[in-house]
């Protein structure tokens, strides 16, 4: 860039920014660019440099008439800017230079920045550039085609605040909005962004720009009564101050305030009154960086070059407590002019120790540096502390294991739904207000705040917390199961009774009682009963192909053999008594061969049924998965239920025939008539198996197997108890009754005659 320095004072004019009018705008068209001076010039240069180097924000300075230098080489002639309506003071002096020409050929000009290359004969258009106006509407080039700025739009500020809220997990916040474009547009953008992130608004209230005590009290009451513990204030400090003052006076604490750039750095709130109220406040503002060489420029400022600069003169007077000889800006009341210190312009700025001359970045970076090193040093001291030499009572040391972080407050409408629960929205309430409903049976939710529950696969089942699916357990009647072990013990114990009875019958095989009751068939019945009890063990344990194939067939054949023997015994009793009658042709049927024939024929029918069953549709092991059941049922599929029920039906038919024959012979003239006991045994047998049918059909899994085992044990015990227990009583306890006379009834008659 080339500039004319021969007569700088002639080429500049000073204009107050707030005094611009339409007539002044015509005058501006004769000048190529503006220069600004203010105490925020370091911020201005920093922001300009950041925008240029960042790239995406470069559209903010398109078609600008700028002379931008690297931050490391600041000069007084380096940027143009307009005043900002968001700041309380608009006293910005605009220095205008006539007929300056900007050239993009100069290496000092950033090539990424569009510049206006005009000849002295053309009329360039000067565009205002703001360093603090952040209202998002100003980005609309149709409404404000000539407006440029070096500060981010409120769109980015709203985006930042919304994502901070989301990062902390706050889903229930309140918003206070200043009643102007800055507040309204900023909060509108904020609400939209919060909505995208799933955060709900507890309240959105307007901060009046004209003080109203009633309105302030109403707002404070809303803040106090709301369940939201995070409040975002999009406002300037002057309008927010009355509200925070009332909040502090009412001792409303426990809230986290989030500050927009309009009040985040305001010194008004850095007083003891607000310490409790604003504790933990989070704020956003434009960043600041260190400007190398700029402090030296300020300290070596040459006033001879800026004799007409109104702001510099005011600054000089206030900094050195002096007055210019021809000053017309202000006077000191009741003080003679002769006592005033006269400004000479030779005063040394390096001798001043004022914040204005400190341009190093200590606002954020240095504070963070100190905070990190404070914590690091504290932790180191805690770790290295020696008991007895510590800083606390009696020289004690702090426990580094109990070091606590800052507790982030929670601001939510509804508690988070734990895994295993799903969210159920409440009618008429925002989406952040919901109920947590436990997932249905067979469903899980493996993350917090799930909207829906997921059904587990058929072979899996939720855990107790319903947040994970696990493989279903296998259910079958096992020996490790209490029910299985008890039934197995009962089977073995019950089998001992007919086995011991068999031994007793063999020992007393020559006694009249054993001989009179068809000794060989009795042996066969006792052996069949032992097998009946033991065959129940095949129903216990993990179903296998072999056990599934044989268990029902063996049960049916063994029980058929047992009932067939009882039927043969009953028929032989009837034949024995009827064969003694004169001229009775039944005597030729009274033979052991008839008994064996009956047993073989009746058992053969059951054998054929079972053989057809096993051949046509044999049973096999199967895993049954029921979606709403937490276990997989391992059982034997009977192949065809028709064959199973045919087997039971035939067995019941034999028992029914035995009962009818025994009941018909109950009045035969024998003091020990076995037909009576056979009748009772068949009644028990039929009752058990008739009860078995509904119980078998109404149970599932291992309990179905347990029902069948119980039916086998019960019917077997009924047969044994009714037929053999009375005989054991006589053989073991009443041996004197075990005589032929007693059995024929003669001994009892002789006792009556005496």
Structural features, described:
By secondary structure, this protein is an alpha/beta fold. It folds into five domains: 8-149, no CATH class; 154-283, Rossmann fold (3-Layer(aba) Sandwich), CATH 3.40.50; 365-402; 421-471, no CATH class; 482-753, Up-down Bundle (Rhopdopsin 7-helix transmembrane proteins), CATH 1.20.1070.10. Helix content is 42%, strand content 11%. It is built from 20 helices and 19 strands. The protein has helices at 22-28, 41-54, 154-167, 181-196, 213-225, 237-249, 294-299, 310-320, 365-384, 482-507, 512-516, 519-535, 545-578, 592-616, 641-664, 674-698, 702-723, 725-733, 740-744, 746-753, and strands at 12-16, 31-37, 93-98, 129-130, 148-149, 172-178, 200-207, 230-234, 256-259, 282-283, 421-425, 434-438, 443-444, 454-455, 460-462, 469-471, 473-475, 620-625, 631-637. The strands form seven sheets. It has a five-stranded parallel beta sheet with strand order 7-6-8-9-10. A three-stranded antiparallel beta sheet has the order 1-3-2, covered by helices on one side. Helix 6 links the parallel strand 8 and strand 9. Helix 14 (592-616) packs antiparallel against helix 15 (641-664) and helix 16 (674-698) packs antiparallel against helix 17 (702-723).
